[in-house]
Amino acid sequence: MSLTGGNRNDVTQLMPLIKAIPPVRGRVGRPRKRPDCLYADRGYDHDKYRRLVWRTGIKPIIARRGTPHGSGLGIHRWVVERTIALLHWFRRLRIRWEIRDDIHEAFMTLAAAIICWRRLVR
């Protein structure tokens, strides 16, 4: 997975992200190479991307534009939004100031470790 600029459209990184997914761990036997389905919001609602995701063997569950909320995707999206909110506890991560992406990634890893440690201490 690559780090892109802040003003880039997320959908441009959809396929590189899917290709970077490591094998799914779980039951004994042949490991699955990819997840069963992909949840995405309305920003990914385009038939081109649905077809690309289907070709990888993943079922796309993408909210349609112009439809009311109630697709059920908010249940899964809340986990991602909560994680981003936890990372925003760290002022340095709210806005990316580092030019080098390896330094920014190191700060993200450090923040994730601190968040986990705080939860385990409780």
Structure overview:
The protein is mainly α. It folds into 2 domains: 1-78, no CATH class; 88-122. Helix content is 45%, strand content 7%. The chain is built from 5 helices and 2 strands; from the N terminus they run αβαβααα. It has helices at 14-19, 47-55, 73-87, 91-94, 101-121; strands at residues 37-40, 59-62. Strands 1-2 form a two-stranded parallel ribbon. The chain is globular and about 40 Å long. The model has no long low-confidence stretch (mean pLDDT 80).
Biggest sheet details? 2 strands, parallel
Distance between the termini: 33 Å
Mean pLDDT: 80
Give the tally of β-strands: 2
Which stretches of 5+ consecutive residues score pLDDT under 50?
Answer: none
Percent in helix: 40-55%
Rg, Å, rounded: 17 Å
Structural class: mainly alpha
Strand order of the largest sheet: 1-2
Order of helices and strands: HEHEHHH
**So how many helices?**
5
User: How many domains make up the 3D coordinates?
Assistant: 2
Share of β-strand residues:
5-15%
Q: What overall form do the CA principal axes indicate? A: globular
